[in-house]
């Protein structure tokens, strides 16, 4: 089944203007397939293939000979020295579309990468398949339960989806994450930490508490969290406290970004079982936040808001230092407005206020709050308020 990725139009435009573009995102998300579709005249190099790595022993001479092609370099973070070679190649001939670099690690965590190609490369994140990218024969229930990784989402049945996700998790724990960042990681510690994050999905992150439970130091916990976030697997949602007059929570919340991975870490076997699990509310909350992230404008940032007295707003859309929308995320399709949400609205005074549910109709509620379903918010509301 062919899924047309929203990012493809943006990438084609950038490829016409920039000598190099980078497509970043977790492994197995479809970066290679998308890159191959962007150019009909390309040379493909995979930095996990020893034969391709051997071709780059004299990388400058080899790549210079390919200046009439688009060169796709996959898992480029595995050879960080390549970035210093790409810089003079690009400066010598700034033809648009010379290089497409694919990476599974955030450039901020790969030493020297972020600075080397500054001003010469366009960075683009490819997320797992989003709700707005689904074909008509895939419902949001399947998408929420299986997540957005193509092999999981498009599996013939839930059993195949679970097998693929289990293999994916084991691969990341035992090999991938350590290899991507060139570090030594303890697989059992990483698996336990990832599992703990899943059970506390959507909660405030307390490094000291995790460290005590895992029997390691807080710096070690924070280091592992950085790698999971740098591998596009975890989201740290930061609190909003600009110009605030109240005492506020200042610790971030953490989410497993893909709900398919979340549900496997929690050993949830079916969509029906999800609704009997204590984590269902947090799963829905993380799912909504991730879908909004995928469709937000570049200038829009995401935060949450919580006071020391317990008033909380699940998600705030911010531009500059101005909150433009406060959002409460509810699993119920007939939600009531909480006093805590009203308190946050009074504190922040946003122009727009929403409660997002799975399938409710769109209607006005009290305090000028609009209740709507996620799909309508993504397609019809979000583009209008940014």
Automatic annotation (TrEMBL):
Residues 174-332 form the DUF4143 domain. It holds the Pfam family AAA_14. It comes from the Bacteria. SUPFAM superfamilies: P-loop containing nucleoside triphosphate hydrolases. Residues 18-134 form the AAA domain. PANTHER family: CONSERVED PROTEIN, DUF4143 DOMAIN-CONTAINING PROTEIN. This is AAA+ ATPase domain-containing protein. It comes from Pedobacter terrae.
